[in-house]
């Protein structure tokens, strides 16, 4: 099967990656976004009050809006975990767990990756019933039985989303309560298809070709229970995972990608933006701005490869007459 080729492949589907895709596609680049999930750390934010243009907006809603913009200009989005980036002749090969993708340029915007449980069967069944993104994969489990490992306000949101699709949800968490707001938890449980499994930790995920059961242990009683499920959703936070980039680009002592003021890394053709970089301020608006900058730098690089020299001053479009006056199309 022939590997599809792109002008630019963006690694990461958070605010930096999706903004990069938006700017790259507006410049006419054939763009692919490859991300383990949609939204990254913004999915953990219930409300954002400091993103320009919005007095208040939920993290998921902001991501969805940018995603729709990027798709409207032709960006493709694939959910896959990238495990390798290497150069082959004129292209970079980006290898994921589910496939390979080729790009003339790469934009690293992987931020922080979902934390894994580190239990037997987890990696073997990833993508075959094990998911790290409720909002991405919940619709795939409509009418099925699933397990959710999550807590806090984000856990409440995940449980609510899954209850809208799954026949039954086993909600596993390590404490007595999944969240301190009992009224909010009660509202989620009112649907009647969620079973709480408190004070418990997962031990193993079992299955031949797909997830079949999840083994959990009650920390207080020591009891072990095997739950028959079709899927396991793991939502326990995020961490930096840049080990696959060692030897590809320069990293600092924290494992962050070192970039210059134009989003360029130590390797020509590879750019980076957002929380994965060594820029000290980890904010959504900064990540978005870096994504735009990396995309414009990638555009200049790709055009040079194609024999066209360009100098980008801005992304503004010409004033266009419109009934009732002039409108500026961005």
Give a count of the beta strands, DSSP E runs of length 2 or more: 19
Range of helix content: 10-25%
Radius of gyration: 21 Å
Distance between the termini: 38 Å
The CATH architecture of the largest domain would be 3-Layer(bba) Sandwich
Structural class: alpha/beta
How many distinct domains? 2
Give the CATH H-level superfamily of the largest domain. Answer: FAD/NAD(P)-binding domain
Element-by-element helix/strand order: EHEHEEEEEEHEHEHEEEEEEEHEE
Beta-strand residue fraction: 25-35%
Provide mean pLDDT, rounded. 91
Quick one: biggest sheet? 7 strands, mixed
Main features:
alpha/beta; FAD/NAD(P)-binding domain; 2 domains; seven-stranded mixed beta sheet; five-stranded parallel beta sheet; 28% strand; disordered C terminus
Kindly describe this structure:
This protein has 330 residues and is an alpha/beta fold. The protein folds into 2 domains: 5-114 and 238-322, 3-Layer(bba) Sandwich (FAD/NAD(P)-binding domain); 130-234, FAD/NAD(P)-binding domain, CATH 3.50.50.60. It is built from 6 helices and 19 strands. Strands 1, 2, 3, 4, 5, 6 and 17 form a 7-stranded mixed beta sheet that branches. A 5-stranded parallel beta sheet has the order 8-15-9-10-11, covered by helices on one side. Strands 12-13-14 form a 3-stranded antiparallel beta sheet, with no helix packed on it. It is globular and about 65 Å long. Residues 318-330 have low confidence and may be disordered.
């Amino acid at each position: 099967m022939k590997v599809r080729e792109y002008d630019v492949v963006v690694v990461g589907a958070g605010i930096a990656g999706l903004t990069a895709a938006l700017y790259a596609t507006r410049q006419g680049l054939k763009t692919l976004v490859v991300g383990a999930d949609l939204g990254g750390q913004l999915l953990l934010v219930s409300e954002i009050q400091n993103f320009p243009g919005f007095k208040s907006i939920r993290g998921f809603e902001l991501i969805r809006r940018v995603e729709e913009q990027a798709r409207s200009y032709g960006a493709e989005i694939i959910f896959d975990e990238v495990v390798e980036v290497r150069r082959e002749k004129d292209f970079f090969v980006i290898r994921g767990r589910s496939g390979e993708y080729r790009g003339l340029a790469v934009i690293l915007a992987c931020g922080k990756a979902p934390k894994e449980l580190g239990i037997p069967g987890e990696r073997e069944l990833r993508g075959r019933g094990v998911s790290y993104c409720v909002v991405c994969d919940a619709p795939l489990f409509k009418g099925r039985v699933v397990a959710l490992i999550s807590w806090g306000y984000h856990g409440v949101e995940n449980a609510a989303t899954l209850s809208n699709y799954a026949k039954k949800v086993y909600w596993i968490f390590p404490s007595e309560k999944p969240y301190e707001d009992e009224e909010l938890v009660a509202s989620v449980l009112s649907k009647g298809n969620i079973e709480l499994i408190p004070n418990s930790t997962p031990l193993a995920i079992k299955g031949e070709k797909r997830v079949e059961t999840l083994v959990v242990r009650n920390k207080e009683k020591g009891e072990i229970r095997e739950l028959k499920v079709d899927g396991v959703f793991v939502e326990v936070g995020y961490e930096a995972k840049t080990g696959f980039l060692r030897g590809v680009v320069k990293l600092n002592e924290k494992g962050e990608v070192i970039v210059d003021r134009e989003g360029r890394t130590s390797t020509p053709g590879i750019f980076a933006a957002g929380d994965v970089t060594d820029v000290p301020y980890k904010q959504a608006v900064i990540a978005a701005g870096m994504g735009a900058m990396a995309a414009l730098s990638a555009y200049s690089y790709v055009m040079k490869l194609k024999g066209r020299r360009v100098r980008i001053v801005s992304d503004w479009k010409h004033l266009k007459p419109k009934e009732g006056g002039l409108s500026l199309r961005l």
